[in-house]
Amino acid sequence: MERANRKVRIPRQKRGIETKGRIIQAARGLFSRKGFHGTNSKEIASAAGVSIGSFYSYFQDKKALFLEVLEDHNDRLIKKIFGQGQGGLLEPGGEKEFIDSLIRTGMAAHDLSPQFHREALGMKYSDPDVEAIHRRMEGLVLDRLVSLFNTMRERIRTKDVEAAAAVVYCAFEEVVHSVKIFESRVPEERLIHELSDMICRYLF
Amino acid sequence: MERANRKVRIPRQKRGIETKGRIIQAARGLFSRKGFHGTNSKEIASAAGVSIGSFYSYFQDKKALFLEVLEDHNDRLIKKIFGQGQGGLLEPGGEKEFIDSLIRTGMAAHDLSPQFHREALGMKYSDPDVEAIHRRMEGLVLDRLVSLFNTMRERIRTKDVEAAAAVVYCAFEEVVHSVKIFESRVPEERLIHELSDMICRYLF
Amino acid sequence: MERANRKVRIPRQKRGIETKGRIIQAARGLFSRKGFHGTNSKEIASAAGVSIGSFYSYFQDKKALFLEVLEDHNDRLIKKIFGQGQGGLLEPGGEKEFIDSLIRTGMAAHDLSPQFHREALGMKYSDPDVEAIHRRMEGLVLDRLVSLFNTMRERIRTKDVEAAAAVVYCAFEEVVHSVKIFESRVPEERLIHELSDMICRYLF
Amino acid sequence: MERANRKVRIPRQKRGIETKGRIIQAARGLFSRKGFHGTNSKEIASAAGVSIGSFYSYFQDKKALFLEVLEDHNDRLIKKIFGQGQGGLLEPGGEKEFIDSLIRTGMAAHDLSPQFHREALGMKYSDPDVEAIHRRMEGLVLDRLVSLFNTMRERIRTKDVEAAAAVVYCAFEEVVHSVKIFESRVPEERLIHELSDMICRYLF
DNA sequence: TATGAATGAGCTTTCATTCAT
DNA sequence: GATGAATGAAAGCTCATTCAT
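YS: structure for the whole thing
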């Protein structure tokens, strides 16, 4: 008996879109609090005020839902990070402020569902699809950094802009996580200060 | 889920110790290949050539086994990292070589069961016990860095040695992971070169 | 499972009758390819280009639809089998031709949706309603055979016309199925030849 | 996460063999009364006085269990059918008795779990594995018939022994089923009488 | 002490059917 | 009338863990 090609409902009407949104919201909450493996589909459905049947008509399975929650989360992150115009900051002498502002923006973005972010980070180590989404996201940010560095090429010490972007991004990411996700023994402000100093000395 | 107050045998005889070791080895392999959630206890027992009953007389439960595999893994890491005496490297002028050597040592350590390392890293995001072990490990490394930096205090730019250690460690960790665990788009050598440069410029 | 006393619409207008027909056609195709249990109502509705709501306004439930498909199928069978006038064939000396013609007609009838026929045959073993329909159909054929045999009473060896009809019908049915539904190891023509011979020797 | 290669337990100890046997017995009863699709695995387990976990450690899934029940059933059939030596029956003049005895033996065999037999017959129309088992069984019987007919070659009318075996077997099977599984309108004795007569007239 | 048969809560998923719009 | 979103009982199956032998 071949499997009937189960179609996932793509909601076009207002009601359907709301329902799907409710499920995503409920799922984000539960995944944040109890993790992906600690949350089951029935819970999600009932937290969304929806039957388990509806759940499975909107999502292929629990993993597919997780990926959608993640995409949704990333969309908001992107908006927060790229939303702010750092337009005029590149003028000579403003390097320190520029880097600080990058760091602050990045840190602030992590205040958006930090618990879900944590769970998603964890899953990237074990799930290829989650990893792929993270890579894409990271690619976006790296590309931006690279083009930023390119516009200030002559003021930057290294010639290897790509590697510079990667290294700076790594340093930044891990510091953010140690602050926002794991409670670092060293307080946030001191870390940011040193991080900023490190990046500036390195780049300029 | 509730914990039975079952007695876990602590093997004192040679045979028991070997058996336990065999289970840990088998588990490391399976956890590496299939992840913690993708591996079941029966598989582990039979890969270790042990009955499921024996398995549970050596380990409280699957999670406890994971923690032991992790501790064992960390022990080896520690040995690899701290084993090398970086004794004489602190002489004036040798800073660059010193940092390079630190980085190389750290990178090399990650060639020890990188797949298991990856899994353990992932689990630290969702399991408090795993997180605690990571913290302890990290604490060890940070302490070492701090004391290292202290011995070269006057040659180091920042006064906030603790934060410096944390930031350097973060940068290092994430770069290592992007190389050893996720395939970075930028080749290893270029990343190491920039990382080393960044740390040196920052510190000295 | 309990039957709601939902009203099933009996379509009287052209459009309704066509819709119902489309559903029956679509269902026959799906039941043939995937079996009754392997086909779900949504599939049927969408294959018929009809909403699931409409589907349930035409048919009490999936089983009721199956029964209608079966009745429809049997109606065509009946037409094919009884449509041909075997009128003049009873003249003395023509017995062999007569039996051959009966067999050929019966075989030909099975070329009508043989896959659906197969499914319906299977379901008669597990569903009383399907069994009842089969019995009625069989009754029709047996009655016809009995009356046929009666008209040639004095040329027939046995006095027990009813049992003769039943036995001949059984032999015929199973041979047809082994040819048309299961691929017999012995080729069709040889089987027909022997079947015809067996029936003739027996009857005349 | 690839599926762990679930091993089906092959019981070697007395207890395990008994348990498996109990499940098979219970399943035969339930399949007979409620059919394959009408019976669920939990019911079977509890009817066998066994946990659902045990059930699945002995059988890959419900279908696999059905196939084992069927094989078991067929084994007994075979014993019943081939157990009786029809050795001396081939002497000249004994043809009628010989055929009668074959028919009686076949009929008697069907008194073994006729309801399960019915279900299995039904499933052969929809399940390829069940069909294959039926074919093998049928092959065994046909081969026996062919070799039987060969030993009495010169007394038999037809030269096409294989087709003869097939046709005779078909007639027999369907008559048995109409008697033992569906209640025929014509009483058993009359059917047997005519069937025997038909086969004898045809063969000799 | 070692074994592996047995357990059963709990998970994911399906699908016939209803009913508000 | 027609629609298709929503329902939820019920199915199949897994696996960490226990415990009688």
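YS: worth flagging: Chain A has a mean pLDDT of 90.
IM: good catch. Also Residues 4, 6, 15, 40-42, 52-53, 56, 61-62 of chain A lie near DNA strand E (CB under 10 Å from a C1').
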